[in-house]
Design goal:
mainly alpha
């Protein structure tokens, strides 16, 4: 059913509109343009021109296109008239694909840059945090120093040169009692 309204007069003309998918036309245009740019096409065209000229210079009785080869020129002109727009259409489609690809590359580059900057900030924060924390080597060195000090005090105590009052209660000395 058509969507025309019965209370609206028509203009009396019916127009035929061809419904062509632009992508399908573009795909075929790219195929033709790709073929026109090959050595195979040039070889085929060269063979056709040589055969055409050979058949029309009078060797045989065909001569449907005598020497100025007007029909051959007309064929080349027609071919060029169709080839040029097809090539331009293919170039425009390629340009559109390149634009989309470039936009995607820019988006990815911006995302990569943002990720890199974020990671750099996080790494700087980790470095600052690590600088403020106790490292294993620092802790080991402090414990070794404390152990050496304790061993020295124990040795001194055994020799009797240190009183129990000099040794803190945590290390085995006497607690300080109030008087």
């Amino acid at each position: 059913m058509s969507a025309r309204r019965l209370d609206t007069p028509s203009d009396g003309r019916r127009s035929f509109t061809a419904r062509l998918d632009a992508d399908v036309i573009g795909i075929y245009a790219e195929r033709v343009a790709r073929f026109l740019g090959t050595g195979r096409y040039l070889a085929i065209q060269t063979i056709i021109v040589i055969v055409w000229i050979f058949l029309n210079i009078g060797v045989f009785a065909f001569e449907w296109d005598p020497y100025p080869f007007i029909l051959l020129n007309l064929a080349f002109s027609t071919q060029a008239a169709y080839a040029a727009p097809l090539i331009l259409l293919a170039q425009n489609r390629q340009e559109n694909r390149d634009k989309v690809s470039l936009d995607e590359d820019r988006r990815r580059a911006a995302q990569t840059k943002a990720d890199t900057e974020f990671l750099a900030r996080e790494l700087a924060a980790v470095r600052v945090a690590v600088g403020e924390t106790v490292t294993r080597d620092y802790l080991r060195r402090e414990l070794d120093d404390l152990l050496d000090e304790l061993v020295d005090r124990i040795d001194a105590r055994q020799r009797g040169s240190v009183r129990d009052d000099d040794v803190p209660p945590a290390l085995g000395g006497q607690p300080d009692l109030p008087n």
